[in-house]
Write a structure and sequence with these properties.
about 10% strand; elongated; signal; 10 strands; Immunoglobulin-like; about 550 residues; TPR-like_helical_dom_sf
Length: about 550
Amino acid sequence: MKSFLIKTKVLTTILAVAMSISAFAQKEITGTVYREGKPAAGITVEAHKSSEMFMTSFDGKYKLTIDPEKCKYLKFTFIDESKKLDLTGSEGNVINFSFDGTPIPGEGDGGGDAAEVGVDLRTSQELVKANDTEFMSQFTLYDQFYKQKDYKSALPHWRKVYNKYPKSSSNLYIHGVNMYSAKIEAATDKATKDAYIDTLMSIYDRRIKYFDQKGFVLGRKATDYVKYKLGGDEISEDERKAVLKKAFADLQESIKLQGDDAEPAVMVIDMQVIKSLFLMGELTKEQVVGNYGSLSRITDTQIAKDPKDEKAPVAKAEIDKAFQTSGAADCEALIAYYEPKFDEISGDIDAMKKMLRALDRQDCTESELFAKASEKLYEMEPSAEAAFNMARLFVKRDEFDRAKEYYQKAISAETDKELLGKYYYELAFFTYAKERAYSKARDYARKSLENDPNSGRTLLLMGDIYAQAARTYGENDFDHTTVYWLAVDYYQKAKRVDPDLTAKANEQIATYRVYFPDKETLFFQGQQDGQSYKLGGWINETTTIRAK
């Protein structure tokens, strides 16, 4: 019995010592997990040879107790992606980790590299030559599944290559973008979608880190960021603004680095983002106009370099559309932008044309800048466009004979039907408004419609010409009123071809319908409502009889 008690005491002492040693061997580690250089929430942290698990909170922090003798690594998991950080045993009690490999704040570039323990920076050719079986095996598996579009099976193998062999092939990043884009589009909730977007952005960043091409890659990154962050999900105005500002910074840097090689699609997104930020009050008119000028110069250069390339002209049209509808493209802003640059661009025919077209689109034709630029352009290149601008200049100066002379020069030199329609329209309007020569104005308006049959403003002008000419047509009051039928016909046509003119056309119809003859007058004139009626003389058109 005494022997048994002694043995029991010995065992108890040994157990206590063992427990004491075990407790002494335990080590509490803490740290912060980062993504894109920011604390990351929702990352699961596990330790090798431990049942403990911790999910990071909003501040990215975690805390675990490990046995440093047994624990060989920490495992970090975000949704369906895991990263492993091997431990050497020499780490302190604080272990920070960058999930995507970007630098950890306060640790410089070393923070990102430290999180990529065991990275092999050899190219695929070097790895194959060295017969690296791990690389060849994982790459082959991911590549085969990827080609079959079995992304679920491809991703685990892709991640191993992506994490350990980041410089093996640039296709690694192209394929990663495609696979995560598919996951984003298939995501059913905002949190998951945002997580995948973060991963997509980190793939672009890592591509820049290992393969450079920063200007090109930043453009693609920003384009996808806007596409996925603003596409579909309802977000607050503040969130939208933050997305646009972040994208704007990357787009601007991309275009600056790429210069004349900037991708057309990137420039279109840039102008659309600029428009949105201006409407939110984040950019000034001058900034919008300045950026528009830069984008326009690049697209013009690309078009001149390769006239067969369809992308640049499409981009130019979209950039112009975004600028013109931005609200920043008013006369004041355009003049403030172009006036200081006049001496610089006055010797460049293409730049002068671009400036005049921008001023023309915003009805800045009465500005001194427009007049000065028109004269200068005509000196350098007496083209149809230059002659047209000179005509407008002389209209402004009330030099009507000179104006008509240049309108005719523009018309005789022009071959484009749409532009001819525009030139004839202005000559018709000038003749109608300034000279009250209704017959001649009508002839020019007809010429305009021959070249541009769907010009709503020309049809509206035809109605105005006839309405104003009514009092001079025919021999009596009844003859005068018949012209209003024809005027209303043209107002009706105008709003059919151009719905934007509906309000104006309806206003004119209401004004001149009151002059229609009444039923009694029609009876005494031997006319019947609904019948056709021919107007003779210089008008020489047929209309329909209507009573008011």
